[in-house]
Amino acid sequence: MTRNDGAVAYARGWPATLTEPSLLTSPVSLRPLAARDARPWREARVRNADWLRPWEPTNPETPLYQTSLGPYIAMVRTMRREARRGITLPWVVLYDGRFAGQLTVGNIIWGSARSASVGYWIDQEFAGLGIIPTALAMAMDHCFMAVGLHRIEATIRPENRASRRVVEKLGFHEEGVRRRCLHVDGAWRDHICYALTAEDAVAGLLPRWRSTVRASRSRIGL
Ligand SMILES: CC(C)(COP(=O)(O)OP(=O)(O)OC[C@H]1O[C@@H](n2cnc3c(N)ncnc32)[C@H](O)[C@@H]1OP(=O)(O)O)[C@@H](O)C(=O)NCCC(=O)NCCS
């Protein structure tokens, strides 16, 4: 549904739960962020503070690692309200049914841009298993094919090798450095802009990612 000002009143393709049941050792799912996630979100953020601090945008109004539940409940409410307005798609990443991290497509601009940016993190306990690339491939296919977005960016600190590997493995294009573009870990930091458009993923990212994972498994005899 589209209002006169071009904003989408209700997001197409939302709320959406996406699942990849058998690519990794256990199923990977994305489901919409819900009120019940405030507590596991808070616990994971506090437990992973040192792991996340160098990479997570700093927001003085909603400190990321505080132990009280109230700010997390407020953030869930805000993100769900934005999801109803079609400007954010906030997902929880589940691995084997457990809260493992988050993936959020935000800053959605409709009209002639149809663009957005994506952010993600995973609990250190689950790092290196291919969970976020799997979740990101599912999310990108959904955004291009069901929601109707055209371009999605990921901005990543040059030092963040793990995150750069995620987008490189999925074929995002590196577009250059944005100088001092985000406040992270207490200072304004340069970020590399990576982007994907709908034309880059016509046949779907997930099928491509499945073949990559299966090929690397068979190379090592799994
Ligand atoms: C970036 C991040 C989301 C990657 O998620 P993931 O599910 O671990 O992704 P992958 O399994 O594909 O691993 C990506 C890279 O992490 C590195 N890695 C592998 N095992 C790892 C481990 N146990 N611990 C840390 N990093 C590891 C490798 O460089 C890997 O690349 P490779 O596939 O070429 O070997 C995760 O490292 C994270 O949450 N980091 C902290 C927050 C963050 O950086 N968010 C993104 C901000 S832009």
Characteristics:
single chain; 222 residues; alpha+beta; Aminopeptidase; eight-stranded mixed β-sheet; 6 helices; globular; binds coenzyme A
Describe what this molecule looks like in 3D.
The protein is α+β, with helices and mostly antiparallel strands. The chain has one domain (about 20-220): Aminopeptidase. It is built from 6 helices and 8 strands; from the N terminus they run ββαααβββαβαββα. It has an 8-stranded mixed sheet with strand order 1-2-3-4-5-6-8-7, with helices on both faces. A hairpin with a 2-residue loop joins β3 and β4. It starts with 17 loop residues before the first strand and ends with a helix. The relative contact order is 0.15. It binds coenzyme A. Coenzyme A (COA) binds near residues 55, 127, 130 and 161. Coenzyme A (COA) binds next to α2, β5, α4 and α5.
Question: In which order are the strands of the major sheet placed?
Answer: 1-2-3-4-5-6-8-7
Instruction: Figure out the total of helices.
Output: 6
Domains, number: 1
User: CATH superfamily, please?
Assistant: Gcn5-related N-acetyltransferase (GNAT)
**Gross morphology:** globular
Annotated CATH topology:
Aminopeptidase
**Percent of residues in β-strands:** 25-35%
The radius of gyration over CA amounts to 17 Å
Number of strands: 8
Largest beta sheet, briefly?
8 strands, mixed
Low-confidence runs (pLDDT<50, min 5 residues)? 1-7
Quaternary state of the chains: single chain
Any idea of the CATH class?
Alpha Beta
**Helix coverage percent:** 25-40%
N/C terminus separation: 47 Å
CATH architecture: 3-Layer(aba) Sandwich
Average pLDDT score: 92
Bound molecules: coenzyme A
